[in-house]
């Protein structure tokens, strides 16, 4: 069942690089990451690749395979024909460190700016939440932080200049997750738009399409979040309520 | 001279899985300047692979549960080889640690009355595992990660610097612990991205590096599991406890070959999944050992009733502790009743009241994993599964209360530490172990520093030796390919020190390891073509350095396995199939001896500390007699026992082939 496959793998560092051709053995049931490992073991011991669990649970081995952002460990070789040349390049939105490894520190910086979970006065062990109420945020907490959504989002993929003002789908979803957390007390609606660029998103759903966890990022996180932001600003009932002094407006939580 | 960065911390935590993050959080909460060093990116640790849940006797689902019951289950699972004090602390503190996670934002699945839901698992008497579908480990790691970010945000607000008191050194590997005299004074590391060296000056180091699975060919473990902490501890003069106990998880994927070993969670069995052989028989009923006879169902009907009415029925034998199930599967395959790809069948088809939809809801990751990797729809077809190297019960010998190792300033928590799980770990006890003992190690390290009269300093000679060792693979021009040597080491361990062991094979293994040791010392790599010094993100070089660690732990496992002449938990000797009450009293302790440039593992027998009377009192006399020698039993029981069996060897009825 094995055959020799043709691969083009991007080799180089942040300065320069090129696609290098390899011919490499492929066996039944293998995934692209297996082939990259075989290249390391037999032809290119210094081929840099970031990986960890090889089971689609850690989100380390993100790359672009024939131009599609994917996890290498979850891309089966059987999805390609035997005579197809398979091109593997690093994810494009982040700077290359070497070969297939990129510098994803952008994401860790964004993560730090979002105000953390705020439990209020509830003591540990005293939370009571219903399953249907936790499920909304649970969907977003399936995120394995592979950053494929960040990579594919055109707001930063083709526009380096937007990076300071845009947290990307992963972290806008993190804001949505905290906003929908039944026990969270903070209000991040103001900063979602003001500091983290929710308005940049024009719901092309590219993030949802590439999510290996099949999280409905756009439909379940970003669009409802946009509605909440708008609701906070323009809800006529709330506006009237505050004018009449019946509704007390909550405090906006600043970015951290 | 090679350029070396230096950074000073109070506590350096090596490893960023559940135990490492929890230890770091605690050290930071104690006001200590803390570094977390991780071989991977922040949030990618092996803990994300944990699926089933975290065991904690909260009693949310069955109010009869409490720490005493959990303690008993843990000791039974470990066949009484556990450090009873660790098992006690673990059972008592696990609920607080889970509630604390929730307070940091974790979202566990819920019961109807809004509490944290708890699920059944092998060896646990009551539903006890707090869980989030089958991705509980991810929830734990993400919550701890986000708590660290929250602490960094506090520091940012106070000092204007997120990393003022807590910094994560991602993709950084420690190759040596540094010592000032007999005490720890820091750690030597390289940054994977650049290959640059870093010296961490710190009076205390917490090891939280996880396990050793990558020394075996078929394993559920990720590349990081190269026994780093075990080896670093040995090299620093600390000791390892009971390294012969290696858990082979009964259900790993067996096909396709490239995913062989990847875990199939025990929750599949907790959620009504059953094991069948090629004849369609639920064979686990044939493998209930004597010590567990009273706790497990004898008919399929009773086992099936248990899921809905656990108070009036006994549990199905698919939920026996992992060592029992793994051996049973091994026996079935050997007897020619295996599945086409050399495993057995595990099926949930038609087993859940809610049909296919319920399977997808309860086991989403498994459904996804089999669909994506094996093209198997688990709602329609059975899974093929077989044993895979999963966890090492053995590890750094520590003080149960503080996690302190034998070397002053060195602490260990989580899988890298030994004792807690005895000879076999129960599913679900690992995640709670990480939290309970991660916190205790962070606290222990902080208290150690507070009591320290003066900070140690790092001797230059220690750094020079570490640099030379790290650069050595580049100097060997005709060095062997590290990948080839690694593959052979894995094959050797798999074939000769695997799930079933024999004296002759273990001797053969030790001989083979002796030869491999020479080859490990002669692996070589060439610098990468780009970058300044050719060490930037160089996987071949990384593996060359990791091989030293895998070599040392392999030697420790093989030697301890040869020494222990009984079968117990994660150590099965074909030539000594019985469990021996005399051997139960013996801890096997590994240390390094001989020429420091090429040390070898030395074994010592060390008596087990007798269990406290009040803890002994939690067990029925008849059960104690199965495990303990006559003189270990409480005084009144001992007299009675003398009159009967004498409490010597217990027939474990391994396999019953």
TrEMBL record, chain A:
<dbReference type="GO" id="GO:0016491">
    <property type="term" value="F:oxidoreductase activity"/>
</dbReference>
<dbReference type="InterPro" id="IPR004489">
    <property type="entry name" value="Succ_DH/fum_Rdtase_Fe-S"/>
</dbReference>
<dbReference type="InterPro" id="IPR025192">
    <property type="entry name" value="Succ_DH/fum_Rdtase_N"/>
</dbReference>
<comment type="pathway">
    <text>Carbohydrate metabolism; tricarboxylic acid cycle.</text>
</comment>
<dbReference type="InterPro" id="IPR017896">
    <property type="entry name" value="4Fe4S_Fe-S-bd"/>
</dbReference>
<dbReference type="GO" id="GO:0022904">
    <property type="term" value="P:respiratory electron transport chain"/>
</dbReference>
<keyword id="KW-0001">2Fe-2S</keyword>
<dbReference type="GO" id="GO:0009055">
    <property type="term" value="F:electron transfer activity"/>
</dbReference>
<keyword id="KW-0004">4Fe-4S</keyword>
<dbReference type="GO" id="GO:0005886">
    <property type="term" value="C:plasma membrane"/>
</dbReference>
<comment type="similarity">
    <text>Belongs to the succinate dehydrogenase/fumarate reductase iron-sulfur protein family.</text>
</comment>
<keyword id="KW-0560">Oxidoreductase</keyword>
<dbReference type="InterPro" id="IPR050573">
    <property type="entry name" value="SDH/FRD_Iron-Sulfur"/>
</dbReference>
<feature type="domain" description="2Fe-2S ferredoxin-type">
    <location>
        <begin position="5"/>
        <end position="92"/>
    </location>
</feature>
<dbReference type="GO" id="GO:0051537">
    <property type="term" value="F:2 iron, 2 sulfur cluster binding"/>
</dbReference>
<dbReference type="InterPro" id="IPR012675">
    <property type="entry name" value="Beta-grasp_dom_sf"/>
</dbReference>
<dbReference type="Pfam" id="PF13183">
    <property type="entry name" value="Fer4_8"/>
</dbReference>
<dbReference type="GO" id="GO:0006099">
    <property type="term" value="P:tricarboxylic acid cycle"/>
</dbReference>
<keyword id="KW-0408">Iron</keyword>
<keyword id="KW-0479">Metal-binding</keyword>
<dbReference type="InterPro" id="IPR009051">
    <property type="entry name" value="Helical_ferredxn"/>
</dbReference>
<dbReference type="GO" id="GO:0046872">
    <property type="term" value="F:metal ion binding"/>
</dbReference>
UniProtKB/TrEMBL annotation, chain B:
<dbReference type="InterPro" id="IPR003953">
    <property type="entry name" value="FAD-dep_OxRdtase_2_FAD-bd"/>
</dbReference>
<dbReference type="InterPro" id="IPR015939">
    <property type="entry name" value="Fum_Rdtase/Succ_DH_flav-like_C"/>
</dbReference>
<feature type="binding site">
    <location>
        <position position="415"/>
    </location>
    <ligand>
        <name>FAD</name>
    </ligand>
</feature>
<feature type="compositionally biased region" description="Low complexity">
    <location>
        <begin position="638"/>
        <end position="649"/>
    </location>
</feature>
<protein>
    <submittedName>
        <fullName>Fumarate reductase/succinate dehydrogenase flavoprotein subunit</fullName>
    </submittedName>
</protein>
<dbReference type="Pfam" id="PF02910">
    <property type="entry name" value="Succ_DH_flav_C"/>
</dbReference>
<dbReference type="InterPro" id="IPR030664">
    <property type="entry name" value="SdhA/FrdA/AprA"/>
</dbReference>
<feature type="region of interest" description="Disordered">
    <location>
        <begin position="638"/>
        <end position="657"/>
    </location>
</feature>
<dbReference type="InterPro" id="IPR027477">
    <property type="entry name" value="Succ_DH/fumarate_Rdtase_cat_sf"/>
</dbReference>
<feature type="compositionally biased region" description="Basic and acidic residues">
    <location>
        <begin position="304"/>
        <end position="319"/>
    </location>
</feature>
<keyword id="KW-0285">Flavoprotein</keyword>
<dbReference type="InterPro" id="IPR037099">
    <property type="entry name" value="Fum_R/Succ_DH_flav-like_C_sf"/>
</dbReference>
<feature type="active site" description="Proton acceptor">
    <location>
        <position position="322"/>
    </location>
</feature>
<feature type="binding site">
    <location>
        <position position="390"/>
    </location>
    <ligand>
        <name>substrate</name>
    </ligand>
</feature>
<feature type="binding site">
    <location>
        <begin position="430"/>
        <end position="431"/>
    </location>
    <ligand>
        <name>FAD</name>
    </ligand>
</feature>
<feature type="binding site">
    <location>
        <begin position="38"/>
        <end position="53"/>
    </location>
    <ligand>
        <name>FAD</name>
    </ligand>
</feature>
<dbReference type="GO" id="GO:0033765">
    <property type="term" value="F:steroid dehydrogenase activity, acting on the CH-CH group of donors"/>
</dbReference>
<feature type="domain" description="Fumarate reductase/succinate dehydrogenase flavoprotein-like C-terminal">
    <location>
        <begin position="486"/>
        <end position="608"/>
    </location>
</feature>
<keyword id="KW-0560">Oxidoreductase</keyword>
<feature type="binding site">
    <location>
        <position position="228"/>
    </location>
    <ligand>
        <name>FAD</name>
    </ligand>
</feature>
<dbReference type="InterPro" id="IPR036188">
    <property type="entry name" value="FAD/NAD-bd_sf"/>
</dbReference>
<feature type="binding site">
    <location>
        <position position="265"/>
    </location>
    <ligand>
        <name>substrate</name>
    </ligand>
</feature>
